[in-house]
Amino acid sequence: MLKLSELNAFYGKSHVLHGVDLEVKQGEIVALLGRNGSGRSTTAKAIMGLVECHGSVLWKGKEVRGQRTFELAQLGLGYVPENRDIFPKLTVHQNLLLGQKREKTGQKPRWGFEDMYTLFPRLKEREHTEAGVLSGGEQQMLTLCRTLMGDPDLIIIDEPTEGLAPKIVELVAEYLKELRRRGVSVLLIEQKLTIAMNISDRCFVMGHGSIVFDGTPDALRANSEIRKEWLEV
Fold first, then answer.
1. How far apart are CA 139 and CA 122, in angstroms?
2. DSSP letters for the chain
3. Which residue in 160, 173, 137 sits closest to 126, CA to CA?
4. What is the C-alpha separation between 6 and 8, in angstroms, rounded?
5. Fold (CATH) for 2-86+135-230
């Protein structure tokens, strides 16, 4: 579905990504791992047209590099940034409503309000509460669900478990597995190796703006040199 080839990205004169090759197939969870500053978040932003980049970004076989973020969203690419970008003065329900994709003739979206409230019952309890007073975990749930209301075929999720309590982390993991069950692909940017390797089908490891490992979670577990050099503190 998504294929990056020789992707280079820049912040001004700073060359951040150096020829990244990466692929996410339909209905799989791919983990993009690495230390802070390795280029993981920049890769997500490059895919979504948020930074200057060169190379190829193929989406369903079509070159989409250079398209604007809202155009990519309309094509079925969802993006959950690290900063939990909610509308604080709007209620939970209103935030979800803003994410809802307009129905095409004869095509019913895969996800609705009840799906969101089933995935995260806490959001149902807070349905009419302003998003700005939610806890960090609740805001993360809301951000994930609002993106899903747009009915994407692939979601890029940047550090969804950062700062969350263990029970909320478990809920997020179940959310990601439910996406896979419904055929939605996931590119997961995550520092917690345990959750990433337990739920992902394949793993990419980044270092200094390049891919230094591509393989299954089991292969990464067996490769102590890669883990020691690029992941472990």
1. 11
2. -EEEEEEEEEETTEEEEEEEEEEE-TT-EEEEE--TTSSHHHHHHHHTT-SEEEEEEEETTEE-TT--HHHHHHTTEEEE-TT----TTSBHHHHHHHHPPPPBTTB--S--HHHHHHH-HHHHHTTTSBGGGS-HHHHHHHHHHHHHTT--SEEEEE-TTTT--HHHHHHHHHHHHHHHHTT-EEEEE-S-HHHHHHH-SEEEEEETTEEEEEE-HHHHHH-HHHHHHHT--
3. 137
4. 6
5. Rossmann fold (3.40.50)
Residues 198-216: pLDDT tens digits?
A: 999 999 999 999 999 999 9
Q: Provide the whole-model pTM.
A: 0.92
Structure tokens, 184: 């939605």
Q: Are 213 and 203 in contact (CB under 8 A)?
A: yes
Residue 192 pLDDT level (bands cut at 50, 70, 90): confident
Tell me the two tokens of residue 167: 């029970």
> What are the sequence ranges of the domains in the chain?
2-86+135-230
